[in-house]
Design a protein that fits this description.
Length: 593
């Protein structure tokens, strides 16, 4: 019989440890300490509690846990000395059927890894989907992580151990995260549509982009949405009607974007479309309607990768689409209007202006999104509550000095443009670090016609300044621009600075944030509140409707805008359940219960 949370809550301390035997390799101390945190509200709560014990353990205890694990395809596996759980996992990954070449490669990697870090390489070989990595995937991951910093790698090993434990607990409890699996599979299938073959890239109004829209529409119809359309800017819109008169009922608006950056991951944006789609599918299968409708928008453009039009798709819904954008061109000289029309869209301002939503028809806007950062991953938490989306200011700039001979120009007589930018970079780093939730980045640097023996006469750069409040952002902006002036005056340089983006902060609506918090609490998870440093469609919808966001933990250290971006099926499942609970709580509020 599968294990239950109720059994664990009522077991003696000794039985509690015995029931969880094998969850963490040869480390019963984790269960012993977690027993004190009972009662657990859910399996998810148990997982978080076990991970917390490890996070709060000493470094020596953490290293002991890591060293309790066997090498992949190592001597213990060959000798048949693995635990039953490890044997099963390595068999499912095909590590017991390595070719001689693969075995030799893994043997060498194990030796190199141990020599560098002093502990074995740990990988949850059943992976984020739960069905297993290929041997090629395992070797590629091994090679990548061998280059990591020791402290970073120790933390990653612990996270992999928690994933191994999570899968083992699912087996013990007879749990299969089917909604999360469906979300993961949708993301994989959608990633097949790309502008390029080598990496996922899906930019606005390309054939791949149009194919993604068509696939989303097909899936929405399969999920049971009543109306599915592609609007004048390419947004995919699915509506699931509530009870009562359709023409007058209010709706909950939700969704995220389906375009991507270049060399993207699979979950940025698209996760926030799939989550409400699955919630609607479950409602439809249960033949259930809510007192309000659910409108899911797959925003066609958020990343600003092809055309100079920020938040093109969500701007149309709030009535802020700039008609001059239609004449903007991409790198190939194609206008936005022509690209729209080539993709089967009208390409007229009149059709776009008609998309503006009437705020009186909507309860609010909520968005589910992968965190795109390391915070939740470092805390071993699957979900987080967004308090505010950072306001930002962006610039492109250039410092101009004097290109001169690197050997004959004395250090005190140089007008080095790159040195001026270098000084600015350090100031941005120090100034931003001095204030909580403030960040500053110089992400692009270029010395035109640079040469190894020439003092840089020009240096181009970018500035990205962000903060949770407009006041903090503007104070950073003022200080950075003043420092730029001072640097150039002192060094005998000149500069230009061109604004490219100014976006106001979007604090979460208190009522909607509390609804997300209630849903997360009901799942048995602790609440963790954090700002979003990235921009989202929600920050535009904020101008029309109250909004709040839910973050989902990203794997691989929380990396995003990268092919390594990942979520587990278990975390995806929790995100869907949280959205369902938010809707249920809205129903209860509408009935006054």
């Amino acid at each position: 019989m599968p294990l239950t949370v109720d059994q664990l809550n009522h077991a003696s301390a000794a039985d509690f440890v015995a029931l969880l035997d094998g969850t963490y390799e040869h480390s019963p101390w984790i269960a012993e300490r977690a027993a004190a945190a009972r009662p657990f509200k859910s399996l998810a709560a148990l997982k978080v509690a076990l991970a917390r014990v490890v996070r709060e353990a000493t470094v020596d205890e953490q290293l002991g846990l890591i060293r309790a694990h066997p090498e992949l395809a190592g001597k213990a596996a060959v000798a048949g000395e693995l635990t039953a759980e490890s044997t099963n996992e390595q068999q499912k990954a095909g590590l017991t059927a390595c070719t001689p070449e693969e075995f030799a490669k893994l043997h060498k990697l194990n030796a190199d890894y141990n020599a560098r870090f002093g502990f074995p390489f740990i990988l949850a070989v059943r992976g984020p989907r739960g069905t297993g990595f290929t041997r090629q995937d395992i070797i590629a991951t091994f090679e990548r992580r061998l280059r990591a910093h020791p402290e970073v790698e120790r933390a990653e090993c612990l996270r992999q151990i928690h994933r191994i434990a999570e899968i083992r607990l699912n087996d013990k409890f007879g749990v299969e995260p089917k909604l999360g699996q469906q979300l993961w599979d949708w993301a994989a299938e959608l990633a097949a549509h790309s502008d390029t073959e080598d990496f996922l890239t899906c930019t606005y109004a390309t054939p791949a982009h149009t194919a993604v829209a068509a696939q989303l529409m097909a899936w929405m119809r399969d999920c049971g949405f009543d109306d599915v359309t592609r609007d004048a800017v390419g947004n995919v819109v699915g509506v699931y009607h509530g009870t009562g008169e359709v023409s007058t009922q209010q709706r909950l608006l939700t969704g995220s974007h389906y375009d991507t950056v270049r060399r993207a991951g699979r979950f940025d944006g698209r996760l926030g479309i799939f989550v409400p789609m699955l919630a609607v599918r479950e409602l439809h299968r249960a033949t259930r309607r809510l007192p309000f409708g659910i409108e899911v928008v797959g925003f066609s453009e958020e990343e600003c990768q092809r055309f100079p039009a920020d938040f093109l798709a969500s701007s149309a819904l709030i009535g802020r689409f700039d008609p001059t954008w239609l004449d903007g061109t991409d790198a190939a000289g194609v206008t936005l209007r022509d690209a729209m029309q080539a993709a089967g869209l009208p390409g007229t301002f009149e059709s776009i202006a008609a998309l503006r939503r009437d705020p009186s028809r909507y309860l609010g806007f909520v968005e589910v999104h992968i965190e795109q950062g390391p915070v939740l991953d470092s805390l071993d938490l699957p979900l987080g509550l967004v308090t505010s989306i950072n306001g930002s200011r962006r610039y492109t700039g250039e410092i101009v000095g004097l290109a001169s001979h690197a050997g004959t120009t004395p250090m005190g007589q140089r007008r080095d443009a790159a040195a001026g930018v270098a000084e600015l970079i350090l100031f941005v780093e120090q100034r931003a670090a001095a204030v909580p939730d403030v960040v500053g980045t110089v992400g692009m640097l270029e010395v035109p016609s640079g040469s190894i023996n020439v003092i840089p006469g020009r240096c181009r750069f970018s500035l990205d300044l962000r903060a949770t409040t407009d006041a903090a952002r503007d104070a950073l902006d003022t200080d950075v621009r003043a420092k730029l002036d001072e640097i150039c005056q002192r060094r005998g340089l000149s500069h230009t600075l061109q604004p490219t983006l100014a976006a106001n902060a979007a604090p979460s609506d208190a009522a909607w944030q509390s609804r997300w918090e209630a849903a997360v609490t009901e799942l048995g998870l602790p609440l963790h509140r954090l700002p979003s440093g990235a921009g989202h469609d929600a920050m535009k919808m904020h101008e029309l409707l109250p909004q709040a966001m839910l973050f989902v933990r990203g794997g691989n250290g929380g990396i995003s805008h990268n092919p390594l971006e990942s979520v587990t099926v278990d975390d995806a499942e929790l995100a869907v359940r949280a959205f369902e609970l938010l809707c249920q709580n809205l129903v209860a509020q509408s009935r006054g219960t």
